[in-house]
Amino acid sequence: MTQQRTAGRISVLGIIAFVLLAALLLTLAVLSAVKGVRTAQSYGNVVRVVDGHTIVVNMDGTEETVTLAGVQAPLSAPEGKKTTLDNCLAEESTANLSGMLESGDSIQVQYVDGPGDTRFVLARSGGQVINVVQVEAGLAVPVREQPMGQLGADLQEAQETARTDEAGLYSPSVDCTLPGRVAPVVDVLRGLPEGGPSSAAEADEQIEAVAAAVEQGVTAEKVFATIDPEGTSLSSLAWGEDVPRLRQRLDEALTQAQTELASLQTTRGVLLTREREEAARQREEARQAELARQAEAARQAELARQEAARQAELARQEAARQEAAREDAREDERRRAEEEARRKAEESSSPTPSTSASASPSPSKPSSSPSSSRPSADDDEESSGPARED
């Protein structure tokens, strides 16, 4: 009885094992069939372009989202995230792919094996391999693990063409690219003005310009640290090969500028010392000139004072002379007046002949009056007048 139960259990286990094996084989068969479908070439129509390497296509009435095999295009930074090198030219890449694949265009896709659930394709349209064209335009880069040997070779060649033509991600005139961040700084560092400054102010201007250029160089140098030459990010795939060359160019220009900056700072110190000495000399000359001016002004003032005193003395003497002359004139006038008065007095006191004759007594007619024999008072005065003057 026990043996029968044991045999029954073994039979059940065998059946279960058989069922599981059959299910596994069926799954493998289905996967193999699906794989065969995905590697087949099919035709469809473009519905829309999602980004620089993703397309929505209509395959027999079913919309499928497919990704260009073997390439990676720059993608826009998620909203609220800071833009990095990996996002450089994301919009331009999408626009370029949209220009080649407009809605409704016929497209041939060849499904290619790839990781995960993403459906990778080799896309052809208008006689072009879209994967290769995107890379050649510098708007996508080849990935390290290529799904198809020939495609990988074509993509590498396209990348070299883009690098040589300085297209897209390799353009030094695009700010967000690595060459665009390094080349302009190198140009600034190498284009600094030559010739030593002639003054401390000119040295300050040159130091400011060189210091700003050096700061740009140091900032640009930090970008290299964000790129892993062996990495799988877009920046690593695009510029990992260029990092040593660009770093060397930047380092050479930066070292030269830093040396120039140190030299300018030394020159500025020398010029500043000379200018201070010259300023001190000029101040001393100005002081001596001011002292000489003051001395000359004092001398001129003294001469003016002496001249004024001389003129005042001359004026005083002239005034005294004029006063003396006026006094002499007054004295002369007084004397003339006295002489005139004396003359008139003499004239009035001297009798005329007719008067004398009439005044003398007539001998034939003597005065009968006793008083007539005495001289009159007037006669006494006339006779005594000249005697008093003498």
Helix content: 55-70%
What's the end-to-end separation, in Å?
A: 218 Å
Read across the widest sheet, the strand sequence of neighbours is 1-2-3-6-5
The helix/strand order is HEEEEHEEEHEHHHHHHH
Give an overview in words.
With about 400 residues, this protein is of the alpha+beta class. The protein has 2 domains: about 40-75 and about 85-170, OB fold (Dihydrolipoamide Acetyltransferase, E2P), CATH 2.40.50; about 170-330. The protein is about 60% helix and about 10% strand. The protein contains 10 helices and 8 strands. The protein has helices at about 1-40, 90-100, 130-135, 150-165, 180-190, 200-225, 235-240, 245-350, 355-360, 375-390, and strands at about 40-50, 55-60, 60-70, 70, 105-110, 120-125, 130, 140. A 5-stranded mixed barrel has the order 1-2-3-6-5. Strands 4-8 form a two-stranded antiparallel ribbon. A hairpin with a 2-residue loop joins strand 1 (about 40-50) and strand 2. Helix 3 packs parallel to helix 4 (about 150-165), helix 5 packs antiparallel against helix 6 (about 200-225) and helix 6 runs antiparallel to helix 8 (about 245-350). The protein is rod-shaped. The model is unreliable at about 1-5, about 30-40, about 355-360 and about 360-390 (pLDDT under 50).
